[in-house]
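pinned: reference chain
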Amino acid sequence: MEFDRVLLRELRTKRSSPLGLLLFGPRQVGKTSLLTRLLEGRHPWIIQLQDYEVFQTHLTDAGAFKRQVLARLESATPARPLVIMIDEIQKLPRLLDDCQWLLDQHRDRVRLHATGSSARKLRREGVNLLPGRVRTRALHPLLWREIVGEIGRRPLVNLSAREPPWAAALAPTSRRWPVPWTDMLGLGTLPGVLVARASDRVDLLRSYTLTYLREEIQAEALVRSLEGFSRFLEIAAAESGNATNFQKLGSEVGLTINTVKNYYSILLDTLVAVRLEPYTKNARRRLALTPKLYLFDLGVRNAAAGLPIGPALLRLDAGRLFEHWVVLEMIRRISYFGPGARVAFWRTSDGSEVDLVLDLPTGPVPIEIKWASRTASLKLSGLHGFMRDHGCRVGYVVGNFSAPERLDRGVLALPWWWL
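pinned: its structure tokens
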């Protein structure tokens, strides 16, 4: 089973561009599969740096890449350019210098594509990321529209509109899931996990953590003690979505604050975590300024935290899992569709909070996330406070409602599948 990806549609419209492509994303989100589909029929020269022999060839012979390129360029023309795909470029960053030479000298006869699952080595070593020669994109786990195969459908609600025409919106999606949608709160949305046999899904998620520790952390010598990092990862996964408290976490795992900060930076650099910053514009009250960190996929988060992935987990912590899922969904959507926008959260020192704030060019859009099927007993003081402080005419509550409802004081309640 293959999923139609939002990013694939965008990149297909730009296949004739001379600009190259650097595609970043965590392991197993489908980067190689996406590029393979993008380059289908173009007979790319594929350099798999995950392959030990290929890696050793280019590691021990610095001129091998350039010699091989020159040989292949002899038959390339502007009409039939040489298409190159380098998988896991962060394993050998110096190849990017050769890529710059190639794009500068032979741009009309070359199309370059590369993937990477870590920005740490590239940033720490001051690597050339080919400015002005490539476009950089991020690939994430699946959006729910990608899963149900309806990515071409227009949004049901335009969050930037002052008065969204929700009453005239299109019918909701059919919600055709490979697994029951509540199972995603435990399994996450990695493509390989969703298409695997039901009996294999949990094992795949648990092996993800082991592979990450072995191939990203140990092989790249990112930490001195793999055991200490493994303990940290378990606690950091359990705390995913909470305000970051370096001192508390360090005391729980027996690490110094500086070590914990370094370990968190590793999670961010290897794209296993994303940071949610506090919204501080037009502050009228004293705000809490500590960011939140979210592991990039709920299934990986649950496995790394050692949680029981199944119905028991949903009964234990459904509200937090649902909030985590919606936050990740919105972060991914802004990454694909929202240039110039960002996702944040809002919390005051006296405890008022809004789970998500979409910081759009047209102004902030506050969103509360509630694991609820009815709107009657919702407590929305934080949402109302934000709307009052920032002059918002519209706010949203996302939940497991059966249909949209307009509540008082400009608040619209939306079923999650109407987003």
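why pinned: Residues 154-175 have pLDDT under 50 and may be disordered. Residues 311-337 form the longest helix (27 residues).
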